[in-house]
Amino acid sequence: MDIRIPFHQLPAAARAIEAAYPDTVRRSRMSARRYFHAARTCKLYDFEAATWLPYSSALAK
């Protein structure tokens, strides 16, 4: 997710990403509930560990 993309433009952004990376993207149905769950739980991406982290984990490093 990119917080700079307004919620109403997420479907078009998702289609563009899917078209650019067809072998990588896995489709799933997005709803407001799933969006808010992801926004609440997935804060930072650790590229070395290839995982999402909450802010509290970043502060511990």
**Which strand order spans the largest sheet, edge to edge or round the barrel?**
1-2
Strand content: 5-15%
Helix content: 40-55%
| Poorly predicted tracts of residues | none
The count of β-strands is 2
- What structural class is derived from the secondary structure elements? mainly alpha
Give the SSE order as H and E letters: HHEEH
Terminal residue distance = 24 Å
- What value does the average pLDDT take? 83
Rg from C-alpha positions?
13 Å
Question: Biggest sheet: strands, sense, closure?
Answer: 2 strands, antiparallel
Number of domains: 1
The gross shape turns out to be globular
Number of helices: 3
Describe the structure.
With 61 residues, the chain is mostly helical. It has one domain. It has 3 helices and 2 strands; from the N terminus they run ααββα. Strands 1-2 form a two-stranded antiparallel ribbon. The longest helix has 11 residues. It is globular, with a radius of gyration of 13 Å. The model has no long low-confidence stretch (mean pLDDT 83).
Give the helices and strands, then pairings.
Layout: H1 10-20, H2 32-41, E1 44-46, E2 51-53, H3 55-60
Antiparallel strand pairs: 1-2
